[in-house]
Amino acid sequence: MCQPSDESGAVATQSQEKQNQQSSGNPPEEMHVKLNEDGNFLSFAPRPSLFSSEHPSNSYRGFVNVLIILLLMSNLRIVIQNLYKYGLLINPWHITHLGKSDNVCLAFSLWFYVFVAYGIEKLHGYVYSPIIKALHWTNAIASFVVPWYAIWYFRTDPSGGIIVLVFATTAFMKIVSFFLVCDRLRAEAKSKDKKFKPKLRQLLYFIAAPTLVFSPRYPRTAKIRWGWVLRRIWEFIGIWAGIYVVARQYVMPGLMNTLVPLENGSFFLIVEGLLKIAVPNFLIWILGFYSIFHLYLNILAELTRFGDRQFYKDWWNSTTLGYFWRTWNLPVHSWMVEHVYMPLTTRGWRKSPASIFIFIISAIFHELIVSIPFWNFKLLAFGGMMLQVPLIELTKCLKGSQTGNVIFWLSIMLGQPLIVLLYARDYAQGLYGPWTDADTKTVRLLHCFLPALSSYRRGQSFVEVLNGCVETGW
Amino acid sequence: MCQPSDESGAVATQSQEKQNQQSSGNPPEEMHVKLNEDGNFLSFAPRPSLFSSEHPSNSYRGFVNVLIILLLMSNLRIVIQNLYKYGLLINPWHITHLGKSDNVCLAFSLWFYVFVAYGIEKLHGYVYSPIIKALHWTNAIASFVVPWYAIWYFRTDPSGGIIVLVFATTAFMKIVSFFLVCDRLRAEAKSKDKKFKPKLRQLLYFIAAPTLVFSPRYPRTAKIRWGWVLRRIWEFIGIWAGIYVVARQYVMPGLMNTLVPLENGSFFLIVEGLLKIAVPNFLIWILGFYSIFHLYLNILAELTRFGDRQFYKDWWNSTTLGYFWRTWNLPVHSWMVEHVYMPLTTRGWRKSPASIFIFIISAIFHELIVSIPFWNFKLLAFGGMMLQVPLIELTKCLKGSQTGNVIFWLSIMLGQPLIVLLYARDYAQGLYGPWTDADTKTVRLLHCFLPALSSYRRGQSFVEVLNGCVETGW
């Protein structure tokens, strides 16, 4: 309770400094202090407590550190238990999965569609315009569908396959943007009696640049900061090593352990398993976001001297799901606004059908990409995306509130592992299609759970219900 | 990724508003938007990424919510496991332990010393002054030692006993402050040829008021806000119910489980057990702090219309241990400054011996209070307090840094459960005194652990060491 001194040891904050001025608890440096008229060294003054709402300003910065420490402590235990139970599951050679020749060939094959698009564009003036349009769309759709079908048909390595598919989606969107913007610029040039011809240089720069919307010019930076690029590359490699460790050591055993209660329907064990997967799953998601949307796109931008680096906004402060979907992925969002939403609304569509149309396109791509690692169309990724439409409406009333932010996080944190769990279950059992025997079983189990809940209401204690559930195989 | 709209859904922050003004991603309300000269609806602009250090201002408020959610999620699993394993251990009737008649009588007996102190004070003018001083000190020391010895001798209920002892410490400090300040005021009055006599009303108000330093007058508030008092009382009751649940359901089983590895020396299980206790132990500590230093003292202050409510400063932002000890408990700190530190330094003591002297007094009281629930003097509470002196010196260089704040939290979070664990071990085995057979055993185990660590350095993998430890009973 002791050691008085003038020097403040706290992180200096405005509140802190203010308080130190008021403070009479710290005796001044001079040694011969006079007693005040009440016979005390210290003086009393009317002051509110710091936690009180009457206190003018306050800094709780230290409590953020405490949250981080508590989180690490809680999970350090899980790390120790995990090492005891499973030993080390990681194996650096797994990285070779990403370099399988079939996937690498498919990734390189994407350049083909880019050059074809440029070739088709060159036909303008020689070929009837609607035919060119049809050729462009065929080429663009092929740039996604051909790699997708090849991965599905040859069952190439799924981890590499999913990367190829993300690149294929990017190629599709870039090619579409390229010919749509070229059309507009050609029409505009024509109205001024000029001619517009895109240069191959412009197309290739657009393919390399971290944007999905074509433009003949972009804001550029003066030079490439190579030291900065190298540091970002190291961070990128380190983060993906971390993601691999978390996925291999925590998510995969967690998934496998939860398949058993999912099979015999132990409701509380399912919830426990879901919570056990949710934390590492979220860690992967947030690290993946940072490494792709901050590091990877910034590395690309630096290498191409691309100036506009707003790849995401502050979606972590979202209080509505709508704000999250508009801000977490600005390259795709901008593409959707540029080539779907704005053309539709300028043609007289109302806002909400245009938004729903955008969600349908997103949902289809999500389902097609997720289908690869699990070799299954469960339509859960599609359904999860489409569920966002009513959820966005429901959360609109929470705009600006902390509750809205918490609900947003919970929907992200619990929705994702649930979907992953259900895909993993059907994958492990070799079940295919949007509705399987396992789904019927799960619904029947939930059907059993409702009577258990109602017996709880009839005055049984919680522990009795819990024991009852355990005894009856719940 | 979609649903564009003008309305921002994020918690409004300065950064956010600024960004919305810059933002060209949200299309304006008007339906017929013109294309820009690059043929796009959207415009590109040179902008840094939000996570980049180049970005002017940033709000990470949403990530604080995510930390809280992750923490609750990680611990919800533990709640489920705990209910499965132990069922409900809590029992509302345990509260009757606090009301045992022997402890209640001891608590009321403290008033005796207060009135005796007033009586001794009245002797001034009739009895030789040093005799009065001796009587005062005897009375003050008796106010702590007599209840302490009674609790020890009769082995009254420990949970009630510790509350009585805290009140007894308070009584001791208040009585000492009363006669020391009266002496000063009497000397001052004498120098002005006046007389000073404390009134019983003043003493009784001082006993009720939330301060340990006597003064004939204090800043007062205008009136008692009864609604406010009732809300604070409800909070106080709710928090202590929570503390009881956490202690009974999590800390006690955790302690008991860790006694076995502590006995047979499974090092990693000891660490795991310590981490398992650390989180609920910290929760109890932080809730206890809030309920006593914010709620209880504010309730007292409101009821006595006491104006000076600075009972703690922002110790949670501490970056040095010194700042923490000077700020977490201002009533005791002020008493120490007023009646120990300032008198010593004005008599020519240097700062640091005076500080160490204060720590010795604190350490003695801590040891005496902790001795009651565990019926043992292990001198760990004393040692833990005295260890603060070198730690304060060591952490001085970290002043103002986040590292300092993290080290401060870790020393609080890990030091406390370690001490509780060691007291609990000897209590469970019926061992007494500052050094027991169990201590010898623990030191021998640590002795064994060092070769294991050095073999780790000689190139064994971590898992081999872990397995080796498990096999050899570690």
UniProtKB/TrEMBL annotation, chains A, B:
The keyword Transmembrane helix applies. Signal peptide: none annotated. GO terms for biological process: triglyceride biosynthetic process. Belongs to the membrane-bound acyltransferase family. Sterol o-acyltransferase subfamily. GO terms for molecular function: diacylglycerol O-acyltransferase activity. This is O-acyltransferase. It comes from Guillardia theta (Cryptophyte). The lineage of its organism: Eukaryota, Cryptophyceae, Pyrenomonadales, Geminigeraceae, Guillardia. The active site is at 366. Residues 11-26 have a biased composition (Polar residues).
